[in-house]
Amino acid sequence: MQATVATTTLTGVEAIAVEVQADVSPGLPVFGIVGLADTAVQEARDRVRAALRSVGFDFPNARVIVNLAPAPLRKHGTGFDLPIALAVLAATGQVPRAALDDVTAVGELGLDGSVREIPGMLAHAISAARSDRDLLGPISAGRIVGVVPQLRYRGIESLARMKGGLPATAPPKTSRAQTLAIPTIDVADIAGHESAKRGLEIAAAGRHNLLLVGPPGSGKSMLARALCGLLPPLTEAESLESALVHSVAGLDPRQCLDGIRPFRAPHHSCSVAGLVGGGTPPRPGEMSLAHNGVLFLDEFPEFGPASLQALRQPIEEGVITLVRAHGAVRYPARVTLTAAMNPCPCGYAGDPQRECRCTDGAVARYSARVGGPLYDRMDLTLRIDRVDPALIIDDAPVTPLSATVRSRITTAHAFAGTRHPCSMRSQLQADARALLEDAARHANLSGRAVTRVVRVARTIADLEQSVPIVVSHVAEALGYRSWDAT
Predict the structure, then answer these.
(1) CA pair distance 482, 195, nearest whole angstrom
(2) Residues in Cβ contact with 404 at an 8 Å cutoff, skipping those fewer than 6 apart
(3) What are phi and psi of 472, to 5 degrees?
(4) Which is the most buried residue in 84, 111, 119, 157, by most CB within 10 A?
(5) Where are the domains positioned within the chain?
(6) pLDDT in tens, 94-112
(7) Could you tell me if 253 and 122 are in contact, meaning their C-beta atoms sit under 8 angstroms apart?
(8) Which CATH class is domain 2-164?
(9) Which CATH superfamily does the domain covering 187-389 fall into?
(10) What is the pTM (predicted TM-score) of this model?
(11) What are the b/e assignments for 443-475, b being 16+ CB within 10 Å?
(12) Minimal CA–CA distance to 313: which of 331, 299, 328?
């Protein structure tokens, strides 16, 4: 007796279709699983056997072979528990085979027969919706998968529910929170740093990479954490993209589904795999978890050289491609990279109040840990100096709230959508172009740096709702390339 149940397995952020084929035949009692299954899938034998018996089903005292097709595709995770159990039940006639014809099943089984969520439920739901199949899984996942358009979801709490047939009702579609969470740090809470706040606004408006340089305790981390509150909410498409990455990583995607942009701040001991992804099976790294949001790297030069240089290509392309022996895995990685660093090992180079004791060679070696190519990819570099203690003690806000700045940024985005989509260089006025050419030659700017200056100038013009890029826009943009002038 044979039966087949459809399921999916994760490859990157995509769920690939897999057939679970069960064959039950006379012979010595054996329960085998074939088809490049990892350890977690092989352990399904014990979970499935115990779960079926726990809820009153009979596990056949015969030769049971489960094949996961296509055989060359690696399968991993505990999501195969439920389809394997259903395939065995269908092969032994305890569940009608026809009831499972248009169903994709995923879920982990407890020894008591309970059906549990697995990482990547959103990916499995998207795959099922695209193939026009019902998705059968844990009822607790309904609040997450309900956002997938045109999905028909059948949730069950336990295998015992299968004795009465498949559930026919789908959960209601989930909706976004009516109000977004207030950012932890509002720009009004930051004393002083008016020029830095202007830089934050430009970085948020154009999704530009930002480098904050200053002595310890000057407020670099606080400014970086305020940046996320200036970004407009995620669009519905962006929400699903970001939530998908979090779901695959086994994290709660609900904040992304509510439109809150992700903010990731890994420790500087983070490995290459932790930062850009990797492992066995591959898992998205911090850069992908920050997709459509902010990736904050504090103590920038303290990150390992290999980790930092691994950022260079994803910053340009917005995607991370991991090539392994069994194939390539792609993760999205469009982030606003924000980094903070001291100007030297002791931290006080350029500080008017404390003397720097570092030698010129020590300062050069410290800066070289990041590398010129990565500095070149930072659109704005802001010097953050310590503020007067009187400003810190004064509680009166002196700048607009984050919501007000965010409103200006939204207006700038709307204006950018209405202007003619011609080349940014053609929007440069003659005197602005001349200024840029002179500055580029004087500072020996690379082609990438020149392009990024133009992009920043274009953002400044959009904030002022100006179609042409004038001298003041270019001058301000050049002022944020202070690293190139040193």
Answers:
(1) 14
(2) none
(3) -60, -35
(4) 84
(5) 2-164, 187-389, 419-486
(6) 999 999 999 999 999 999 9
(7) yes
(8) alpha beta
(9) P-loop containing nucleotide triphosphate hydrolases (3.40.50.300)
(10) 0.91
(11) bebeeebbebbbbbbbbbbbbeebeebbbebbe
(12) 331
